[in-house]
Amino acid sequence: MKKWIVCMALAVCGCGGDNLVGTWKGSVPGWNVTVKVDRQQQSDAMGVVTGVISTDKAACFTNAIMSGTIAETTVDLGSAGSGSASSSTLIRIQGEFDGDKITGYFNVISTDSGCDQDRIPMTLTRQ
């Protein structure tokens, strides 16, 4: 009986599964990153997500609108913005989603080479 109650609670609250909506945080050397997913629309095996990516590296990237996809457990998130310097910066996070973790890679390409970050392993956790 207890197992059925747990399953019912998960179905009602929408916890876990492939729902990315919420706040995610992760870091790599020199960057602390927050991803806030506001909306997820699912269509068969592909979902589209929108929200905001923000960082603590203000000279390179403060915050900007994010869009991305989730297919099965594969996540691809991207954002284009700038920081206090006059640079254009692209952030891309790709990885595998497993409930409360996204394990993958963080990549930054910028017109300011001091902001560039080669593809580096990153784990984001749901807050």
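the 2nd protein, sequnce then structure:
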Amino acid sequence: MAPSDRRAGGGPEHDRRSSDPDASAESSAAEAEPTNPTTTGPDVTLTEADAAGLDRVEALLAANDLPTEDVRTGPGQFYLARDGDDESDGDGDGDAVVGVGGVERHGSAGLLRSVAVEESSRGDGYGTALCAALEDRARREGAGTLYLLTTTAAGFFERLGYEAVDRESVPPAIRSTTEFAELCPASATCMRKRVGERASSDGTGTE
């Protein structure tokens, strides 16, 4: 996302820019792209956020003007992303956390959401690495297809292999999520990526 608008789904076309969970996925993740495209990107490791970790998730989402209302009460699983090459965080104190993200899984379909990269870690490819790690985690947990909504970063996600799709083609369980039903505007681009062998031709992610 643009430095002045860190939210992945944030855009001037609606008045709830700060409520778009994808905003960080677009802006801060896009900002985290390496300035030198030939440079090998970083590795990140994911840790499921416990109660203390959720404090970190909420803080980073709030810093990016992203909603935090359902972080503790919703069905999404949130993660802390750490630099895979940095061993200084072995005691779990969170010093090496480079970003956060979540996946809300419904059967074998999932919703990529609440992705944000620490400002100090942007520009080195952590956005792409974080999304890849979330996709891998979702795939290993049974998701065949991931969906997301974005108002400003369709190009970023397209480079990661996502394609724009009509909302009507999205499984009902994903369309009924808070992000689809309440937080994101109708103008947001709906995107899909098949991440596992279980993804079916209709994009539902079922066998």
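Residues 1-27, 88-94, 198-207 have pLDDT under 50 and may be disordered. The chain is about 25% helix and 20% strand.
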